[in-house]
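Cross-posted from the bioinformatics board.
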Amino acid sequence: MTARAAGLSIDARTPVGDLRLDVALEVAAGECVALAGPSGAGKTSVLRIVAGLLEAAHGRVACAGEIWLDTDRRIGVPAERRRCGYLFQEYALFGHLSAWRNVAYALHEAPRAQREPRARELLARFGLADRAGARPGTLSGGERQRVALARALARRPAALLLDEPLSALDARTRAAAARELAGVIRDAGVPVLLVTHDFTEAALLGDRVAVIDKGRVLQEGSASALAAAPATAFVADFTGAVVLTGEARRGDGGTLVVTLAGGGEITALEGEPGAVAVSVYPWEIALARPGEAAHDSARNHLAVDVLSVTAVGSRVRVGLAAPQPLTAELSEASARELELAPGGRAVASFKAAATRVLPL
Amino acid sequence: MSGWFGVLLAVALAAALTFLTLPVVAIFAQQPPGDLVSALGEEGALDALWLSLRTTAAAVLLILVVGTPAAYLLATRRFRGRAGLVTLIELPLVLPPAVAGIALLAAVGPSTLLGRAAQDAGLQLTLATAGVVVALTFVAAPFYLRQAIAAFEAVDATLLDASRTLGASPARTFARVAIPTALPGLVAGTALALGRALGEFGATLMFAGSFQGVTQTVPLAIYDRFATDFTAALALSAVLVAVSAAILLSVKLVRGPDAVAR
Amino acid sequence: MRRLFALVALLAVAGCGDDATVSGDGGKPQIVVSAASSMKEALTACAPNFPDAGVRLQFAGSDELAAQIRQGVPVDVFAAANTKLPDALAQEGKLGEPVTFATNRLVLAVPADGKVDSLRALERPGVTLVVGAEGVPVGDYTRAVLAHLGPDRSKAVLANVRSNEPDVKGIVGKLTQGAADAGFVYASDVKATNGDLRAIELPAELKPTATYGAGVVKAAKQPDAAEAFVDDLLAGGCHKALLGAGFGEP
């Protein structure tokens, strides 16, 4: 089977309420595509069409060589026969069943005797062996998410659909869950379609990001490409923050020093030591020619390569590499003055106060 | 709360309590319990109790088997005319029992097409136990249906979706997810229907008649006896009160311990 | 707020008022008459014309009405479908001296197009028969009449009973609905159906006559008006109405 045939192919054109949905996506096996956009953009509708929970007026959905939907040929496989693993936003665990029974619900095709052991084994893999007999009502948010994941994966699905997987968690749990989720996505080896309203989440978990608004995909590509060269003002706005990863340690005077992956060191005023993600907004980054006097108030300076210069309205988005991808946004005048061009070098500066730190 | 308003509230409560509990207490207190028990042993009383039990059970079973899927359909699908259909189903709720009796006679009585067809097929409705079951089902079904519809409507639709993404057919989703999740509401509805069926009088008398062992249910037996054997009437009433209380209590227990406290 | 309280108080007082003391009809006293169901058509027609008082009628099986009076329900007149109940109440001191004011005949009623045509036919199995319950006058009369047939024939007829109705109108209803082949009711009841039912007269040796007795309830609020009504049943407008409905002279 070719890589393409093993993946998930979606083409949906249908009205959903007041929205006119028109989305075409390809997700390769083992790849995670994050569909990101504001609420009401139609992202959950796309998931539901793939899962067979929503009817499409026109569309085609194929996964791992199987055609699940083809309105032209009048093919529509019912939801229960599509091998989709669906993680619902609020997890949709069955409250009247214990955790392992929830997982076993998906194993109805397996011989009766095997159901409990397999369910318990799956839960153990998610670190929930001792909570297997508990009811969902007694589990924490993070535990519920893991049970829901285990349940979605129990049938060894051909595609994984995740609806805002991190949004129902508190900030603390979210970081650990994101790490875990990334691992699950990697190990699953199937096409994964993730839906989120948070671009940072999309950037962290998705190999590619597709920005959707009002039922249409506006731009598709890697998170950094979208941030660096947004196709529209909406995309520019939506892909606000720049995300860098690194290792943090305590510095002098209560500061946090982060050694960025690939090189470079920056200082932040908040956060805990350990693996972190650092986020800065493009318009908080000032650019200067290499060697020019650094801005006094900015504490963080990174030597960067200029990769791209894109005009967005009256502003200019500059794609940089530190070597981690970075984006700065300047006024037209500033960009002209600096004579920025792809292939050149510059110094990117931003304040420690503008540096947000998220545990990773 | 102090002052005259607090006193007013307390007086209102006392009045309501007295008004509602006094008749019930009087049933048990008016005669010595020994008399009540021996009155129950009388053959007609036992026949009435057994008949009420059989017919109510049959009616409730019928209601559950037919009503549960019907309520599920009405709760989970939106289609044109749905609101009208629901109102139609709930109509017998507000019908006075006598009107219900007339309605049944007009629909399946011996002078109607359906009634004659039933008779030809060997099913005797009027003056027969089957007729009692018909009357009980007619008056009690809306009590269950209304609760069941509400209970199924309250089931989170994403749970049903989740079930389907896990490979369960709509039928399996209904049985393994919808019903267990809606169960407290379904039980409450069953209790209401049970209570209504047990106490049904007017429609039964008009449609099925009153004959010991065949159509004379407990309420009819009470009516038959109250003028001539008040003790027997009291005894049967006491049994009905006890059964109704048991039904009410078990519903509260099924809903959970917090419901008992409520 | 004050207005609300005043309104509530006014309604409470108005509600507490006795029917007997709150006079309608321009000052005439009001009386409540408990009468057996078989007299429904006749009394409903004549009561509005009763000159001495406004009459409120309530109909039910005589035994049920007697039970109410025993429990102290304040009606003014009790008119029963037998003399047994008024006599019993008089014995208990609940009723004044009862008078016999009319008679009725127990008849075998069948639907106009029915297949049963005689008392004999009732003795065969397979006939659906509806009678009054024991304790209800029409039920007691029926059993007394059948007893005159002799134990075997009586038993054969009673074996066909499919319903013991608490009220004679219930028997009539079952017959007009076609639910039963035959029933024992009063001649006045058959007349009231205006042709839907046919009456088969019972032989005199079975003593099918029902004697109706009435009296003034001791707890009556308007004993004088009540007495006047009993007289009316005996010889006045209501007596004529009863005769017209098929009742007989006492």
